[in-house]
Amino acid sequence: MLRAFKLAHYKFALIPQSTIRMPAFNKGNVLRGAFGSSLRKLVCSMDKKTSCDFCILEEKCAYTLIFNPSDISSAKRLKNVPRGYVLKPPLEKETEYNAQSPLSFEMILIGDRINYLPYVIVTFHELGRFGIGLNRGRFRLNNISILKNSEAISIYDAASNTVKNIIMSITGTEILEYAENIDHNRITLQFLTPTRIKYNPTGEKGKSEVVRVPEFHHIIRRLRDRINALSVTYCGSPLDIDFKGIAERAMKVKTKEANIRWIDMKRKSRTQPVQHDQSGFVGKITYEGVLKEFLPLIVLGEYVHMGEDAVFGNGWYRIE
Asked: Percent of the chain at pLDDT above 90?
């Protein structure tokens, strides 16, 4: 099912040189916006007000390929190309960070986007000079670790500003092996950040509805589609599954217990005078049924998230 898939998991530690003020929630929005702005400053050869659509270097530009991909997949079903990375923001509600309280976050790079790690590192290194957060607090990049199987290996030496060439990707085969060791009849998911998914019960155009308390098949449908899109775009191969059948079988898995609440959130667009709805559910939900064939998708979903705005850190859950 996932044998072509791979990803790499990193943790970045930033040491503030002055106080950095962040929102109590939506830290992923701030991190992603700052990352995109800094990356474009580094690599863009055009006037910053000029759209990437008019740039002759668009197909080879690191900003486009990492932050704003388009037309990089030949799959006709992919209307919206997913980003090849996921930010996992700090979950604490702290609003101020300083030298005694560093700012850390995690980042997932998927498939061939792992090769763009040097651009990511340089971007955050340079971002430290311009600042981040609500007050543009400056920082220095203190450490980067690569994470796998509860192991963290430092790959960045701040003193010499050098990066160790350590490749420790997580493969689809390893995801499948891990899934074999999970309970095949009962699972509890804890949603850590607002998760916003939609389901179209009739299949009619324009009839999709926002799901407030997810049934199991809602989860599997969204994971199936997101992971397949990522696999096609960045790992060179679609999922080898029965797309319709897996959704139908997921409907047989029942909700045993749900402790879910809804969080209302908005995000201001940096490029348009509009607000995007990032509202979603958080909390715990337990499912029971024959789970074995679904577990690889669920395990991989811990890394790549699910639903809308996953790249910002939304739709982040953990298996308990």
From this structure: 78
Tell me the backbone φ, ψ of residue 123, rounded to 5 degrees.
-60, -50
Question: How far apart are alpha carbons 110 and 86 in whole angstroms?
Answer: 8
Full domain range(s) for residue 275: 172-319
The residue ranking higher by pLDDT, 125 or 70, is: 125
Q: In this structure, are residues 308 and 278 in contact, taking their beta carbons and an 8 Å threshold?
A: yes
Distance of alpha carbon 74 from alpha carbon 80, whole angstroms: 12
The Cα 119–Cα 128 span in angstroms is 14
- Same domain for 143 and 22: yes
For residues 196 and 278, the answer to whether their CB atoms sit within 8 Å is yes
| Residue 232 and residue 86 share a domain | no
Q: Is 7 left (phi over 0), alpha (psi -120 to 50) or beta?
A: beta
pTM of the model: 0.93
- Read off the DSSP letter of residue 3: T
